[in-house]
Fold this protein.
Amino acid sequence: MSDGAGVLALLRRASRHRGAAWGLAILSLLSVAALLAPAIAPRDPLAQSLDEGLSPPSPGHWLGQDKLGRDVLSRLLHGARLSLAVGFLTVAISLSIGVAAGSLAGFLGGAVDRIFVGVCDVLMAFPGILLAIGISAVRGPSFGNVLFALSILGWVGYARVVRAQVLKLKAMDYVESARAVGSRPSRLLLAHVLPNAISPILVEATFGIGRAIVAEAGLSFLGIGVAPPAPSWGSMIGEGRHFLFVAPHLVTAPGAAILLTVMSFNFVGDGLRDALDVREEAR
Amino acid sequence: MRRYLLRRVLHAVPVVFGVVTVVFLLVHLLPGDPVEILLGESAMPAQKEELRREMRLDRPVLVQYADFLSGLPRGDLGTSIRSREPVLREIGRRFPATLLLAATSTFVAILVALPLGVLAATRKGRPADYLSGIASMVSLSVPNFCLGPLLVLLFSVQLSLLPVGGYGTARHLVLPAATLGTGMAALLTRMVRASLLEEIGKEYVTSAAARGLSRRAAVLRHALRNALLPVVTVLGLSFGAVLAGSVITETIFSWPGVGRLLVQAIDARDYPLVQGCVLVIALCTVAVNLATDLLCARLDPRIRYE
């Protein structure tokens, strides 16, 4: 099966997974809402109305207003743009580094591989978003710093998956045959090995987007994510938790948005992984 | 076992060295002069020089690195800018609270995950399995900074059953431990289910049943014991995540642990303290991973001979 057709077959099989289909539908809606946020958001997400601060949901403000009187629904929609942007960009950066590092380590082996494994071991010793917290803490809150902080550790997971795939694939007969007929190492890697390693990377990347969204929201919750007043779901919860007694909607609305988004990515990831498992078993 | 132990400990040495190096480099990631960032551009030159000397930034980077390394065996992680106390003393004071929270969360997670995972595996494809699967997926997807405030909203604001935050009694521990342990419980439930399903399909379980053992006894006495080995690995790996998660959970519940200390240090731009907290949590993770590997090797001799 060609690599493009393989990925298509994987996506087709995953779409039959009920959870993945639901996840994909929710993510499609969310992406459209995020893209159209400037047009469909009822208000300017930064416009303050101090005398209406902490107002509960009403016909004028469906999800209520925060302490500065900003419209929660508008902030939520614009926050979706930010969350999805961080999720996709972090994964794109991490994936680029991870694929390059993992494939070189797996393909070249020897000292390069040993150094790679050592670097991964060191970075994996920093659990969760601890290193990202440390980096963001010293570099300060900004969109660029969040991407930097999340990507610096994010690439390791992809690199390990790619390395494992490359180690497995480079020993296969078809790669040996290509080598025997004189294919250059770069061609072996780029044309024969990497394209066949795409499926597991796709699964990992799907989970990775959800993880990056949670990580960004976590950093923003701590006040070291995206710089205010940009609407981030994490900072909305961080600010809202101080008003739980009088305005619980400030926590429940962004909380539900994060839960729904991350769960959708996890369902899609699960569906892709199950589809991949079936294919692996069938081989 | 002794050879495996030696090999595994030797492997941990360069990891620890790498972790220390990354943490040392953290302050050097600051955009600009750390002293100016801390004191502001308008500070007197003498003040700046004093702080520069105190933070050991007046020497070449390599000398600073050598100082940092040589200080570690003596427990010297520098001095907190905020409190002027040794960083390790500040962390030492907060560490028991973090350990208590992490241990309780892990204990609660095991208590929930074991029966739920066994139930899901033994009732595969039935409603109990589906319900446990959905509960696990929701729990895995809800970050602790969402779950914590939601639990406060339900149990403290609506039902007035538990305190909003603080430290001291068992009641103060319930919500933070539940917040921190939920994700771990979900992961363990999935792991117990998957691992037990794999064991249940093996011949020794069928053979045990053929010898007249009830299915329940065959699963609980034989399959579960073998199924728990990969669970121990996941448990060890998740403990690091629990320590990292304590940063947010302790902040939500005003829990006086290392995680909250880290956030307070970030707010005060107390970089030596930030470095110290990150280093201690990372080194604890390395230690727990090492202990997990050794425990697994003790439980399963095959690992030692790999």
User: Anything to note?
Assistant: Chain A has one domain: 3-282. Chain A has a mean pLDDT of 91. Residues 53 and 163 of chain A are 53 Å apart (CA to CA).
